[in-house]
Amino acid sequence: MKLCDFMMRKPTKDRHLAKGILKPFSRLVIQRLFLHVVTAIVLVALLISIGCERESSNRIAHTSWKHYGGSPDQSKYFETPGITKENVSDLEVLWVYPTEDNRFYFFNPIIVDTTMYVLGKNNSLIAINAKTGKELWIHTDLSGITRRGLNYWESNDHTDKRLLFTLNNSLQAIDAVTGKTISDFGKNGYTDLREGLDRNPASIKSIQSMMPGVIYDDLIILGSAPGESYFSPPGHVRAYNVITGKLEWTFHTIPHPGEYGYETWPKDAYKYVGGTNVWSEISVDEERGIAYLPIGSPTYDYYGADRLGSNLFANSLVAINARTGERIWHYQTVHHDLWDYDLSPAPQLLTVEKNGEKIDAVSIATKHGFVFVFDRVTGDPLFPIEEKAFPKSEMPGEESWPTQPITSLPSFTRHEVTPENLNPYFSDSLRQDWLQRLDSAKTGLYVPPSDKYETIMMPGALGGANYGNTAANPHTGMMYIMTQEYASTYRLNKVEPPSDELTQNDVDKVTALYNSSCIACHGPKMEGAAGPSLINLGHHMAYQDFKNTVINGKGLMPGLVHVDEEALKALFKFLGGNPNQRSYRFNNQDQNPIAGPVVGSGGAKIKTDSLRGAPMEEYPEDVQHPEARYTTDYGLDWPGLIDPPWSSILAYDLNNGSIKWRRPIGIDSLYAKGDEKLGAPNGTQRKGMVITSTGIIFVTAKGGKLYAIDADNGETLWETTLSNESNAQPSMFSIDGKEYLVINASSSFRRDSYDHSKKPGALPKGYVVYGIPDKK
To answer: So where does this one cross the membrane (predicted)?
Structure first.
């Protein structure tokens, strides 16, 4: 075994990197008392280890797209010698695989050898020939499958190839060659993800993430989406064996007694606090065996009187041993979060050069517009971070943290709404309305929410960098960020006891939610427009089915993941329903017969009787807690509140900590009349990009835009307008030396004055494959 290979062995339970070598050396020192000799040996070993670490980051191949972000490091980086800046304008559509229904698909295809795996045809998982688009097999009726992708794993001898995904709170596996369910996975073909979460499993109604997780060796590491209400389940990160489905380890994001960070919460907080979950992208350094977790906010997001303290590991970047789940280091980017400033995008693994030294780094971009950069192994910040004081909360029982970490790197978003930066496209009357609101509201970074006045947070819950919005060139120290200037307006309201009657607070929540998210499809009076009528919907639909439809989407309706429980209940009551009536059914969608090579249907059959039970709604009897609870909606009514640009992509040079270039992306017709120089409100949410080795960024944006951008200066090399909106991560792959770009363009244009799907020559909704045509 080479010395480098020995030094870079994957960590075991008792070892990690050089630490595993220092222990036996230390014993040798004690036994033989040759302190000076062994010290020299250890120093040499450490130097070699560091050299191996630097070398390892350059050994990772980015020549396939078998993972959600291309590779386990989630860099979205791809080696593309054949598509260059000189010939990228020759790209053409080579073939399209239609989804053949009216659903929105956010699915990121993965490609293994010559097979592409996609989601389409009424939630069917489909294997197609990546060169021709021909169907190989179809597994139908996977309603409830992970929305944004799946995982691929194969054994060392290539005889066992499987796809792993979550479906209706279960983990399942399908044979990647045949498309059939692997029945001996887990118990009866599935593993119940509701188990092992400090709650009664029967009370957990939602836990699976919309993201697929990540594969490391024979493990699948999963985050979760437990909801954002009081008493949501905790978002512990877990790893399962890809062969057996057995739980291998759990990292408690809300620490248990005796664990690191337990003292940063109230006693027994793990029994009732929820969230603190990884709902987005987990990045893995395969060579070192380190997983990097971008952990989100604890519940409840905007009022934390029942979770006083800094709340580790909420809002933290945590490096863990990917084999064992043990914490290596962490950094908390927001203490005691009151603003829903989740860590959403993928941590980016790249090599930077500082003071003539190459350092393997991990960087994270945030919702509130900051970039934090650390040594990948030690967790040491590579740029100074200062704790700065911010306003104190005035809410009863609340104790906001007195300081917050502010990096010395330049922010990529604005942090307040002022009369000077209000949207210049507002009408005079609307502008006057907002000037009056600003007079009585508070705005600015880390202003705590209040029940006495409105707080206008810039950016808000969907601002800054979100999931899918970061990528990197691992070798050059360049990180690329998609960002949007999107404010949220908050005002806390006291939670009243459950009631079948609508309160004024209920009406306010319904109005805000409906006007921001529903009116375009269901009409101003809920009578139906592009979507069906909602009048008296609650009379013939169970609340849990209603909740699942709103959050996960159905048909043409996209999922509204940022709707809180109180607003959902208020809307359901407004529609004639009673959310307190215990009735749980499964929402089986009508299916048309599917033509093609169907090999299976429905995945493993989950026992529905095990899913009955009531969610947790009160604190445990033995736990001290505040007398009152407060909530607010997400305040997402005004995506274009401030002046443009609203959506941008930028290049962040992490070698020197500067923004190299920035440019708007996307088109919006709401205020800007289609002017691309202004970007688009909400133009980067659910979008994505690919970085190529030839210096091209392929990026999608609102309005069906697909750009090829010069990574060196941000200039457009090529662009096209898709026939349908894309709300998924792009992919790239190579076959026989030819490179292809895949765009999932299966969403509809909504609330825009243009609809490219109705223009002559428009392509059907589906997966669009681009390439440079072969020379004749």
So the answer is: 33-51
